[in-house]
Each structure stands twice: as C-alpha cells, then as structure tokens.
Design brief:
By secondary structure, the protein is an alpha+beta fold. The protein folds into two domains: 31 residues; 63 residues, 3-Layer(aba) Sandwich (Inhibitor of vertebrate lysozyme, Ivy), CATH 3.40.1420. 34% of the residues lie in helices and 30% in strands. The chain has a five-stranded antiparallel β-sheet with strand order 1-2-3-4-5, with helices on one face. A hairpin with a 5-residue loop joins strand 4 and strand 5. The chain is rod-shaped and about 90 Å long. Keywords: Signal. It comes from Sunxiuqinia elliptica. This is Beta-lactamase-inhibitor-like PepSY-like domain-containing protein.
Length: 108
C-alpha cells in the first residue's frame, strides 16, 4: 500500500511539473522587431501633396515653410521656421500628423 501511495505521489508531481516546464519554455521565447531607418530626399515645395499643405497651413500658420523632403516610406518631412527656430514636422501621404522634432542645422 505504501508503494502505491509513493507511485501516485511521483506521478502527480511529474504531472504538475510538465506544464510548468512548458510554460517556462514559452516564456523564454523572444521576438525582435527591426525597424528600417527612413531616408529622406529633398523635393520641391510645389510637389507636396495637397493634404500635407493643408495640414501645415492649418496647424502651423505662424511658421514659414523652408524645405520639404519625401521619405523612403512615403512620409513627408517639412522644415518650418519661426523666430529663428526650425522644426521638422512629419506627415503621412494623407496629410495626417506623425510627429514633430527640432530640426538639425544640417537639415535646413
């Protein structure tokens, strides 16, 4: 009888440890996301999409546009100036705002 209880205890203990081991193995899996760096090429201001021009004029009326760039991902970077301050504003091709950054002197 003692032998039967010991075998039962061992089987139960092994049964409980397998799912934990599987869960631990799953938790160890990692995934990495590689972001490609977007490169920008200077374009003429006249070639900016109307949606981007509209977004700039509505959101940054106090700024003047100095340069425009198109990204390798289809986005647009517009360099704006106001009171000796330059900012780079990013839009998608639909004119939707993506982000704004302080413009580097090399950009403008």
């Amino acid at each position: 009888m003692k032998k039967g209880m010991i075998i039962t205890a061992v089987v139960v203990a092994m049964g409980m440890s397998v799912p934990t081991g599987v869960m631990a193995a799953d938790a160890m899996e990692t995934s990495s996301v590689v972001q490609q760096e977007v490169t920008y090429e200077k374009i003429e201001l006249e070639t900016l999409p109307e949606a981007v021009v509209k977004s700039v004029s509505e959101g940054y009326a106090d700024y003047s546009v100095s340069e425009a760039f198109q990204g390798s991902d289809g986005s647009y970077k517009v360099i704006l100036e106001k009171d000796n301050e330059k900012i780079a504003v990013f839009f998608n091709d639909q004119g939707e705002f993506l982000k704004v950054e302080k413009a580097d002197d090399g950009e403008a």
